[in-house]
Amino acid sequence: MSEIESLKQESRIFEPPADFVSNATISGMDTYRAMCSAAANDYEGFWAALARKNLSWHRPFTKTLDESEAPFYKWFEDGELNVSYNCLDRNLQNGNADKTAIIFEADDGKVTKLTYQELYERVCKFANGLKSLGIKKSDRVVIYMPMSIEGVVAMQACARIGATHSVVFGGFSAKSLQERIIDAGAVAVLTADQQVRGGKHLPLKAIVDEALALGGCEAVKHVVVYKRTGDAVKLTAGRDLWLHELVEKQAAACEPEWVSAEHPLFILYTSGSTGTPKGVQHSSGGYLLWAALTMKWVFDIKPADVFWCTADIGWVTGHTYIAYGPLAVGATQIVFEGIPTYPNAGRFWETIQKHKTSVFYTAPTAIRSLIKAADATPEVHPSKYDLSSLRLLGTVGEPINPEAWMWYYKNIGREKCPIVDTFWQTETGGHMISPLPGATPMVPGSCTLPLPGIMTAIVDEAGHDLPDGQGGILVVKRPWPAMIRTIWGDPERFKKSYFPEEFGGKLYLAGDGAIRNEKTGYFTITGRIDDVLNVSGHRMGTMEIESALVANPIVAEAAVVGKPDDTTGESICAFVVLKRSRPTGDEARQIAKELRDWVAKEIGPIAKPKEIRFGDNLPKTRSGKIMRRLLRVLAKNEEISQDISTLENPAILEQLKQAL
Ligand code: WT7
């Protein structure tokens, strides 16, 4: 039985615990349904009321949704606000000044706590520092920083002065960083001397230097360096300066820059099926509204909660559920520098116990790897820790298999915590399909139902609705406030990628397949329908990796496919043809290693193929098209049952069958 077939058959249902339901922000399915009807009956009125209630506006908006230039939708456009004001000043006024905003848990276990008052002052000083460098509203600032208080402060400081930030994950190479700096037209880069993960120091500033030296980044006038480790780094006079020196003399208050709700808060690069990564542009008002609302609806956040999202600020999860959402609702959150397996695989459970975490949000890959670790090393089994503070669990980034869901439910949640399996994307800004923990009965492996106001549907190739039980293409039928606004600098690509003409230009195309259960109406995501891979919840385009491989002078041709992986969900498998004869044995192993390191340098270590197979050629049709579906079968080491009559060179399949 295929994985999808077994998910369709999944019949276990877990009702939300009664005491959770009675205290929940959204309590019971009737409330959920009433909210959905309210949205259906008066879509704009539904969102307008939420935006008025949940955000502080400097100038109220008069028009909710402007569809005149669809699909370039505008929400609350004539309204003015400041995101950092909503995340900080508002908390000082609400009596949260002395409440802990951030509990920073360093790689080595050292803890630093910051109140909302202290966070406010740090952000204001940083913002004033940026201003003193001449950085102003609408300038783009690239942030290449580790998981740190400073990283969050940097993002908030940009928001405070109306600068648009673009955070680049610390695992990307100098070349990837350079491409993003150029595409965004950044005037400054904020970084750190090093990043510390799993006891290792990794250079960040040196990579920034390398990126800028690659050329084309002349717009960058300043590099601000946060001193994390104090290891030696080179500062270029006139361009580079230490963060602590920049902020020390700055005032601890900074008037926020009031911006239109449509002002771009950030650009975040993500992979598509073709071309270079896309700069997903997000708004200020609509985005923040959804960050705050989903904190309340999906994470049921309450004043006493200790929230912990384990994502990195380099991904959208770390934007919405670390840098913005938790602060917008005045929550206390943990910011974690380290990795799940250092000093041992009990680190997550130890940290939950230590800080009395109540809401915990992580990726299925982490859960799967910790299941293995708990089996292998009983000392770090979750049963060894006091996890009684937990009341809600969440997952994100990739499908969670029912076995992992059950383990999480039993061993971490001790059968008393609901699990929210949240489906969303960089482009959606926040959760789209997810259980509401005090309402939705849960089914392992299903993200269940769309959130109120989110009009998801499953359609066929022609854009027509499909009946339940039939798998198809996941779309969103109405614009929503937190949606992507455009691809930075490429509005045509935005239209083509997300609102294709084939669908009348009106349906948002998520890029995922989905199926809805005939009885429950629940959604199950069946995976990407384009050439995008999801490795450990990290999104990568096969084309990007292929381009990186063929950029190597010894490579003639390359094709990359995803291969199912027990831990990482998918892994990268590359089929490579060299300009020289096909290597075998030790030589093949040696060249494969060189190519992996090459990809790490071109894109970043996260894009390294796990497996490389060499061939004299690739399976192609007579018209020269690479038959990727055959490569996918080969990667899985399965027998080819497909029709191969259109294949030009069937003999090649035998050669590519053997893994190294
Ligand atoms: C892709 C988006 C969501 C923020 C982090 C990743 C996959 C995401 C789920 C889920 C099944 C999921 C989809 C989606 N995905 N969440 N709960 N169940 N698949 O954001 O890097 O933009 O990746 O991740 O394929 O399209 P992203």
Description:
The protein has 660 residues and is α/β, with parallel strands linked by helices. The chain is built from 20 helices and 30 strands. The strands form 9 sheets. Strands 5-4-17-16-18-19-20 form a 7-stranded mixed sheet, sandwiched between helices. Strands 7-6-8-11-12 form a 5-stranded parallel sheet, with helices on both faces. A 4-stranded antiparallel sheet has the order 21-22-24-25, covered by helices on one side. The mean pLDDT is 96. The protein binds 5'-O-[(S)-butoxy(hydroxy)phosphoryl]adenosine (WT7). 5'-O-[(S)-butoxy(hydroxy)phosphoryl]adenosine binds at residues 270, 315-317, 396-399, 421-426, 447, 510-512, 525, 528, 534, 537, 539.
Mean of residue pLDDT?
Answer: 96
- How much of the sequence lies in strands comes to 15-25%
Give the CA-CA distance, first to last residue. 29 Å
Q: Which distinct ligands sit in these coordinates? A: 5'-O-[(S)-butoxy(hydroxy)phosphoryl]adenosine
Low-confidence stretches: none
Anisotropy-based shape = globular
The radius of gyration over CA amounts to 24 Å
Please identify the structural class as seen in this structure. Answer: alpha/beta
> So how many helices?
20
Tell me how many strands there are.
Answer: 30
Spatially, the strands of the biggest sheet line up as 5-4-17-16-18-19-20
Percent range of helical residues: 25-40%
- Main beta-sheet annotation: 7 strands, mixed
Topology of this protein?
Blueprint: H1 3-9, H2 18-23, H3 28-41, H4 43-54, E1 65-66, E2 74-75, E3 80-81, H5 83-93, E4 100-105, E5 111-115, H6 116-132, E6 140-144, H7 149-161, E7 164-167, H8 174-184, E8 188-192, E9 194-197, E10 200-203, H9 205-213, E11 222-226, E12 240-242, H10 243-247, E13 259-260, E14 266-270, E15 278-282, H11 285-297, E16 306-309, H12 316-328, E17 332-336, H13 347-355, E18 359-362, H14 364-376, E19 392-396, H15 402-412, E20 419-422, E21 456-459, E22 472-476, E23 486-487, H16 491-498, E24 508-516, E25 523-528, E26 532-535, E27 538-541, H17 542-550, E28 555-565, E29 569-578, H18 585-602, E30 611-614, H19 628-635, H20 651-657
Parallel strand pairs: 4-17, 6-7, 6-8, 8-11, 11-12, 16-17, 16-18, 18-19, 19-20, 29-30
Antiparallel strand pairs: 1-2, 3-13, 4-5, 9-10, 14-15, 15-23, 21-22, 22-24, 24-25, 26-27, 28-29
Helix pairs in contact: 3-4, 5-6, 5-7, 5-12, 6-7, 8-9, 11-12, 14-15
The structure holds 5'-O-[(S)-butoxy(hydroxy)phosphoryl]adenosine.
